[in-house]
Structure formats: C-alpha cells, structure tokens
Amino acid sequence: MSKSIYVLGTGLSHNGSAVLLKDGKVCVAIEKERITRIKHDGGNDSDAIQYCLDAEGISLDDITIVVQCENFTLPKRDFFKGKRLFADTDQPKIIDISHHLAHAYSAVGTSPFSDCNVMVIDGCGSPLDQFIELHPEQKNSIDASFFEVNQMQCEKDSFYHFDGQKLTPLIKDFSVMAEQSTSKFQLPTTQHSIGGFYASISNYVFGDMDDVGKLMGLAPYGNSGIYNFDAFEFDSGRLFVKDDWKHHFANPSQGYEYFKEHFDYYANVAKWAQEQVEKAVINCIKNRVEQFPNENLCYSGGVALNAVANAKLEDLQLVKNLYIEPATADNGLALGCAFYGWLEYLKMPKVEHDGSTCFGKNYSKEEVNEALISSDEYSKIEFDNDDELLIYCAKKLNEGKTLAWFQSGSEFGPRSLGRRSILAHPGIVGMKDHINRNIKFREDFRPFAPAVLKEKVNNYFEVGRNSPYMILVDKTKKEFVNQLQNVTHQDGSARVQTIEKSWNPKFYKLVEAFEKESGIAVLLNTSLNRKGMPIVETPAQALQLFKETALDVLVLEYTVLEKRV
To answer: Roughly what angle, to the nearest 10 degrees, separates helices 505-518 and 386-398?
Structure first.
C-alpha cells in the first residue's frame, strides 16, 4: 500500500483556519475561533494546525508540503504572532500564495467543475508588490497603469480561468488603501472595495464592522427609493466607490438603544446599502463574464456571503452553472492554500469533492461522557439507534421545544448546516423572538433560516433553489408564510438550506421524522452559539451553552439531556 500524501493549508488572516488534504480530499479542517473561542480569531496558526494533525493521527513529518496565506505579510516559519509549530524543524517546506489566489483555489477545489472561470470579490487582498514577489510570472496580467501609482495598492477583485489543474488570471483590479481618518465612514480596506463599503455602512449603523451580515438582516425592514444616489460607479471595466454619498448621512449609531430609537432610519440606510452592493456585484461580474465567456463560474471572497445579492446573480443567469464557495470569506483561505498545494505545486489531478462542508473531528462516546460529568441536574436518556433518537427529537420539536443538536464533525464555514445547530419549530407563534431574546441574546430583527428537505424545496418556496450552504435567499410561498413564520423574513424572503442526504444523512432523517409529526418538511436552523460566541466545537462547550441559555433539550450524538420543568 502506497503512503498517503498530505497537504496542509493554513490561513493566518483574520478568521484563521487550517485544512488538511489526504490524497487530494479534505480529511479535516477547522477554524481557529472554534478552538480559542475568540470570534474571528486569526494570526498564529499553531492551535488550528495541531487540531488537524491530532484528528488525523499524524505529525508534521507526514506532511508533504505546507501552503500559507495571510493578507499583508508573509509569515515567517518560526514566529507569527507567537511561536509556530514549524519553529524547530526545516521540514516540511512552506510556500506562500497571494490572498485572492487562495480564495480562488478554495472555490475550484470544492466545485463540481473541471473547467470554469472564477470571480473573487472581497474587502482587501494582497498588496501589489507582494503579489508580484510571489507570482512574478503573472506580472503581464496586470495593467501597466497600476505600476505608476506610488501608494500602497491591494487586490480588490480578481477574475481567473481554471483549466482543471491551474488558475490563470484574466483580470486583476487593484485599489489604493483607504486613508486613515476619524470619518464616520472610515473604510477598513481598499478605497474602492465593495466589502469595505459594506463594512463602513455596518459601522455607521451598528458601530461594528465585524458582523456585516446583520446589515443584510436589517435591510428588509427598510424602504427602497428613500435615497436616490449611487455609492459606486463603473468606468472602463473598473468599479469605484464614490465619495459624495457620504455627505447624505450624518447620524451614525450611538449605541443599541439609540439604534432602536431610530430603527426606521437605519433600516432605510441598510436597504440602500444592500441594493448598492447588489448592483455593484452584478455589474462587476457581468462585465467579466461578457469578456471571457464560460458556462461555469465559481464565486468566492467575503462579498460572496451576501445571500440576497447571490440570489439575484443566480436569477440573471449570466452563466449556466454558478457555484458559490461555502467558506467564502477568509476562513476559506486555508482551503485554497491546500488545493493550490495539491493541484499547482504537486501537479496532482483534481479529486471530486462530495459537496460536504463538515470537516471537523468526531467525538467519541467517552469524550461525550466526560463532558457530561457535571450534568446531574438534567434528565438524561441514552439511545441505541438513529430511529428512536430521531422520533424522540421530532416529537420534542413538534411540542415547541428548542433543541441543541450536536452530531459528528463540525461544519467548516460560517453556517451551521445540521451538525452544530439550534433547531426549532418553524411555525409556533413567538418562537423566533424567544430564540433571539433568550438563547441567542441578539437583536430581535435578525432572521433564522429554514432547513428543508432538498426534494421538497419547491413545495414551500417560490424559486425552489438548490441551496445546500445557506447562502442564497428565496421567497416563502404565501400559503406557507404562517406555517413558516419563524423562518420567513420581513419582506417574505428566507435564507434557505436545502438538506443533502448524501453528506448530511442524520439531519435529513431528522427533518423527515419531524415532517411525520408536524406535516412540515422544514425546521428552523441556526448556529449553536449565542451573540459574540463562535459556534461550539466540543461536547463540553455545547453543555455550557445549554446551561446558560433557555435551550430545552441538548442532543450530544446519542445522549439526550432535557431540563426538568
């Protein structure tokens, strides 16, 4: 038997992560925040890498190549915001790649395509000088005018072609960094970045740039047409952020109470910003695909998390097949690094990906039992098989209980897809408000997602999109709005998850069991965490969350805890 080939990818930007490929397939991956419990944690990668090595039962000696990516620097082998695991050895070899190239490889490595184009749009990629240092052979792909600018410039959007083995840049756009100032619209990224614009509006509305997804959740409460000016302009194939729109907004948030007092105002600002982003994304991608036609398109980068813009992009049918990478923000950089190592550095053929995002380690019965030592105050049931467990859980959900669902290896990326989830009935009156207020401890306007059996998505939603990663929105059919009131947003939209039986079988069977109890093939699904907390990774973390919130039932594999009334 030949020895397996391991490739390690590591992302050291914010939202750091590590990914291990075994013979071209992801065998384990983890985001650093899941281990350290610090939201959006990045920098030093030792914890994330050690998790992957331990989960696979190997050491650094078994790794063929390490590929790394940060954002503005090239991390040293021995030290980067702390001592690294590679400090005391000169093996394996470590190579660096640029930020957008990592985003792009994360998409093509997990996509179903052997030939495609790739669009990357985010807040800020690698500096131009660094990009040329890393990839001197690609200098000719960059417009000569960029080299005449004396300020620091970084990747803004990039467009590539993938031939099944290698990515070739077709169009790369760079922007100078936004000037540092005390402006209420300080962009944390490049001056002309879609991602930077959205983050600056989030800061204006919430006083927070780290959770821009809230802005998308707020936008449906606003009205279109309140503001009739544009934030972006498209000129000679390049997208620019204008300056004059900033003068129209002079009331930045002064805290949550102030936000609630002026809710309609901020909702209208969010609506305008969301519509601006949608237009910018569509114009940018339309320009690229018209210049370089291909029936397949991958899309990655932090801006690709905007589920509303993604749905509108899909509806336009600019290409026949669109694939949006699930871990599309910087948590996916390590994924792209690993696939670059396999495809480009080792020149190995692409291995078909099964569509799963669930790359975390499995926890044994012993580890679950160890976590439950301090759980005597709860009633406890042990199940021997799936059928009995799922029937029990389905009944509890139909009775209106909230359920913490912990199963198998955790999801990689920002969405809980049925491995680390909080689940509830989609139609019981008041359930959405209860979960936001007493379990998630977050703003009451924020929506929850419907998880629906893939084969029945057309029954409940107007378009019936295939959306396994919860990064596309649909519209709930009017006749089901009441039954799905806890997962239907203010404007009738819903960020749907279609459940894939092939790689999410237990969650699929749970929703089947719930349908038999309730007549509804949909569950409310949200991440197993609370505001400001990374999604839980271990049984002990799940138990702690259960203790400190109003969750009713905790399911740890085949062990169930229920709070006594």
So the answer is: 50
Specify whether the CB–CB gap between 179 and 233 falls below 8 A.
Answer: no
Decide if 496 contacts 472 (C-beta within 8 A): yes
Q: In whole angstroms, what is the distance from residue 470 CA to residue 450 CA?
A: 9
Residues of the chain with pLDDT under 70: 1, 180-188, 209-210
pLDDT tens track for 193-215: 999 999 899 999 998 766 788 99
Q: Please report the pLDDT score of residue 184 as a whole number.
A: 65
Q: How far apart are the first and last CA of the chain?
A: 57
Q: What is the DSSP string of 7-54?
A: EEEEE-SSS-EEEEEETTEEEEEEEHHHHH--TT--S--HHHHHHHHH
Whole-number pLDDT of residue 1: 58
Q: Is 169 exposed, middle or buried (0-12, 13-18, 19+ CB in 10 A)?
A: buried
The whole-angstrom separation of Cα 130 and Cα 298 is: 25
Contact 411, 331 (CB under 8 A): no
- pTM to 2 decimal places: 0.96
| SS3 label, residue 363 | coil
Instruction: Scan for tokens 């790794």, then name that residue.
Output: 63
Contact 68, 95 (CB under 8 A): yes
Q: DSSP 3-state assignment of 493?
A: strand
Tens digits of residue pLDDT in 480-517: 999 999 999 999 999 999 999 999 999 999 999 999 99
